[in-house]
From TrEMBL:
It comes from Pseudomonas thivervalensis. GO terms for biological process: response to cadmium ion; response to lead ion. CDD domains: HTH_ARSR. Pfam families: HTH_5. The lineage of its organism: Bacteria, Pseudomonadati, Pseudomonadota, Gammaproteobacteria, Pseudomonadales. This is Transcriptional regulator.
Amino acid sequence: MNAEHHDLGVSQVAAAIAEPARTRMLCALMDGHARTSTELASIAEVSASTASAHLAKLKQMALVRLHVQGRHRYYSLADPRVAQALEALMVIGQSATPTFTPRTPDRLQFARTCYDHMAGTLAVRLHDRMLEAGWLVGMEGEGYRLSESGEAVFEGLGVDVHHLATQRRRFACPCLDWSMRRPHLGGALGAALLQVALKRKWVIQDLDSRALGLTASGRREMAARFGISAEIDVKPTGAIASRLAPTMGLR
């Protein structure tokens, strides 16, 4: 594909996302759950026929995927890259104001899903702690790898890190958090960590939103296993900023 075709592809995708109703639909699907066109019409505050037209456009641009189960039709994001692109656009959108003040509801800002991994204040703090402890090691332009101690931590949680490394998706990478404007952990490793947290009931997911609630046992485990407090501030330190530079393109 030549440069002209690349430019055309970017502009077409951007135009598909840019319509406010379609943006609301895509953001609603970022929790990884599939939804019907009726549900998405309500979220986008449009009629059923208008919602169907919007979803057809999003499907045409490979931004959503249609799942048919008997008489039911559900829509989900096409793949994690769509969620990552939306998170990045949210960050850029916030940058239009001189002073950044998160407008995210408190519960969503503290902990939420970002497609299939964890986002928000708690996720950013976990990401920082893994870097500080040397469990995550940055590889320029290629995300992260686990150190020996990092492998031991995740294997202690029941995560088969070697199996994750064979998957077609990125193993571990920084995903820019739109409410904090700093990275949390994405990729297969980030998804595995969220599944551990859900399975062990460290966090509980809302049925009708992306919010994650931290349980009492979750608070204890965050302190015992990761050495962090759920209430701790998440301002980046110099060490964290320098470690992020190779993977986030920061200078």
